UniProtKB/TrEMBL annotation:
Transmembrane keyword on record: yes
A GO CC term attached to the entry: external side of plasma membrane
Topology class, membrane: Single-pass membrane protein
GO molecular function, one term: signaling receptor activity
Keyword presence, RNA-binding: no
GO BP term, example: regulation of neuroinflammatory response
Keywords on record: Disulfide bond, Glycoprotein, Membrane, Transmembrane, Transmembrane helix
Protein species of origin: Cinclus mexicanus (American dipper)
Protein's cellular compartments: Membrane
Protein's recorded name: MOR1A protein
């Protein structure tokens, strides 16, 4: 989410036309067409951050600037050329890093939240803890994960650290309750 992505087609032979058909999980489909012989482009129902990108020596590609969660879905490229017709499909899945929130609850126990991540984060504690994480699911696979620190022994330091592991990165934060 927020990054840019460039998708390319398989090119064989002398290409006459490239077509991208985008079917998002939510919303209406979008189509982009590029006719090589006339150097004409056409677009139907596509958001402004989706467009062709032309680079010297490379085939035209589809560029998505500042990708949004709503653009998750299937991206199908069709190529018409002298060697035949070719297709390539991409399935675009978004990753959104969670926001880390660490605080002390009413009983003065450390609480760690990985808020609004797309896919769920894994939480762990230093020093070790016997706590389990609770997941709260929202739409579009957005998940908040909550964990309360539960000491494994009575010989625990006053500072605890919450470690967050996610496919979009890893973070940690410490607190003394």
């Amino acid at each position: 989410v927020g990054d840019s992505s460039v998708l390319t087609c398989l090119i064989k032979g002398q290409v006459s036309m490239l077509t991208w058909t985008i079917t998002p999980k939510v919303g209406d489909p979008c189509t982009l067409v590029y006719r090589i012989n006339t150097n004409m482009t056409d677009r139907t129902n596509c958001s402004d951050n989706i467009s062709w990108t032309f680079r010297a020596g490379l085939a035209p590609a589809l560029e998505i600037r500042q990708v949004k969660i709503a653009q998750e879905g299937n991206y199908l490229c069709k190529v018409a050329s002298t060697d035949g017709n070719f297709c390539r499909t991409y399935h675009l899945t978004m990753l959104a890093p969670p926001r880390l929130s660490l605080y002390c609850d009413e009983q003065d126990s450390p609480m760690c939240e990985a808020v609004a991540g797309k896919l769920p984060a894994q939480l762990s504690w230093v020093p070790g803890s016997s706590s389990t994480a609770e997941e709260k699911h929202q739409n579009n696979r957005i998940v908040t994960v909550l964990s309360k620190f539960t000491a494994c022994s009575t010989n625990v330091t006053s500072v605890t650290t919450c470690m967050v592991s996610h496919t979009a990165g890893n973070w940690s934060q410490s607190i003394a309750c």
